[in-house]
Predict the structure of Transcriptional regulator, LysR family.
Amino acid sequence: MRASERSGLAPQTLSGQIATLEASLGVTLFRRQGRGLALTETGRMVLDYAEEIFRLGAELEDALSSRAAGRAVPFRVGVADVVPKAIAYVLLAPSMHLPEPMRIVCRENKLDQLLGELATHKLDVVLADSPLPPNMDVRGYSHKLGESPLGFFATPALAATLQGPFPACLDRAPLLVPGTEAAVRGPLLRWLETHKVRPRIVGEFDDAALMRAFGEAGAGVFPSAMLIHDEVCRQHGVSCLGTATEVTESFYAISVERRLTHPATRAISSASPLAGEGTTTEG
């Protein structure tokens, strides 16, 4: 009865429409519960989809009205916590210079959490240091923005204690490395092994900004993408010891669409400052 009152339809009409929908879908959405009806498991799933459809419809209406009124269009970005914040800014900067005003809404989290929000359209795109993992139950596309070689940085005081040319100077040197979730960690450790360099790993960090803070304090040599070489040296008072050209840190824009349609997403893809190939792969 309450559903009838809320919809403005007679009970018989509402029952008929439910029966028609169930027949069309070939499923049972409701079951008898006492004198009323309760959703079946399938009915709850359909309700979740319906609520998402209405939410997206409301967002579309809001985006269109914002554009018509000259208000900023929201650009909802998830940034995986292993992506350095300075890199995230460089990648997102092109979206701030579009003809139509944009309002960037950034969320930082673990990649799997962000991909869940992407799948439910709570995010427009996710920035990550690796493509969509094949074991994730999320249908999406990975758009490679490019890659940057890795450099090694140290304070002048620490650099003065190191012996020999690069990379031999890293042997037995204190080294700060990215955490286990960073895609570049494995290639970095293999590079050290290939060059028969055995530094002392004194710290592991999920947050690149925290790793650089320790490096600034002289706790150890630390790696960083050469894309932000100048900023790292200026901000942290360090110098670059050398570049591991064989080790590159890659960055991706992950979306639920093969062809990017959001103007801000297209902007960061086409104007990426990284020297990448711009490839797209399906997850």
